[in-house]
Amino acid sequence: MFYTRIPVPSNSQHSAQILNQSRKYFPAVGCLIGAIGAITYAFSMPLFSPLLSVALSMLATIIATGAFHEDGLADSCDGLGGGWHTDQVLTIMKDSRIGTYGTIGLIAALGIKYLALLELASHAQIALVALVLITAHSLSRQLASSTIERCTYVQDIDQSKVKPVTDRHLSSAAINVSLISTGIPLLILTIIEPFAAITAALSAGIASLWFTRYCNQRIGGYTGDTLGATQQLSELSFYLVFIACLS
Fold first, then answer.
1. Going by C-beta distance under 8 Å and a sequence separation of 6 or more, which residues neighbour residue 123?
2. Please, which residues bridge with residue 222 across strands?
3. 153 DSSP β-pair partners
4. Which residues lie below 8 Å from residue 147, measured CB to CB, with a gap of 6+?
5. How confident is the model at residue 165 (pLDDT cuts 50, 70, 90)?
6. Digit-coded pLDDT (tens) for 46-101
7. How many CA atoms lie within 13 A of 13 on its CB side?
8. Maximum distance among all Cα pairs of the chain, rounded to whole angstroms
9. Phi and psi dihedrals of 209, rounded to 5?
10. Fewer Cβ atoms within 10 A, N terminus or C terminus of the chain?
11. What is the pTM of this model?
12. DSSP 8-class letter at 222
């Protein structure tokens, strides 16, 4: 209910505690979103060109999440690009309107992701493209979730939509569940393309750490928007480096 727009039964129970514990399934949600994109791509390829198939695959994942992370990326670009001081950055991020920096950042990210996946489609079979999508979506969400464990939330936590997700850390058992959801697709991809998979995973981790460090320097921690940006940047880094290793 929180991470996607996928319908759930109306009688499903929900609470702040359940929502907090749901974060252990964040990478599993990534597997699901990646699978939606992969299935869309696989069914589109026999009917359309790779150009249209990749576009439909990206659109399917955006619809499935309600542009959850893309919105965070745009707001982060607006805030970090337009604000000089911490209060200015946070105020701009809260504004629901998208500005110049957000527009440029979103177009650049989606454009580069489209071109990257299109190039991947020219180098790999449908099954490999599908596995890369699932792995990238899962790993990038794991990296975003790990930011919560390591850093400080800097918005007004009492008024934040993500308060139940950020106000406590996961238990060791919950972290293990999260890591399993990330590790399975990454392990399978590593067996098929060891060098590309490992290098791409490392690059995604480095991108996440760099952006987290940048946010710590600028605003003293993270916000819900920067978590979305972390997911987008690490996912994109995974694609770019994986393709570079295949070329």
1. 243, 246, 247
2. 153
3. 222
4. 208, 212, 222, 226, 227, 230
5. low
6. 999 999 999 999 999 999 999 999 999 999 999 999 888 999 999 999 888 899 99
7. 3
8. 51
9. -65, -40
10. C
11. 0.91
12. B
Half-sphere exposure of residue 57, counting CA atoms within 13 Å on the CB side?
32
Contacts of 82 (CB under 8 A, 6+ apart): 88, 89, 92, 99, 100, 101
Write down how long the chain is.
Answer: 247
Task: Tell which residue, 149, 153, 244, has the closest CA to residue 200.
Answer: 244
* Residue in the block written with tokens 């003293």: 220
50-65 and 26-44 helices cross at what angle (nearest 10)?
150
CA distance 61 to 41: 11
Distance separating alpha carbons of residues 238 and 247, to the nearest angstrom: 14
One-letter amino acid of 72: G
Which among 106, 78, 71 has a CA at the least distance from the CA of 92?
A: 78
Residue 159 structure tokens: 């008024």
State both tokens at 47: 């009917």
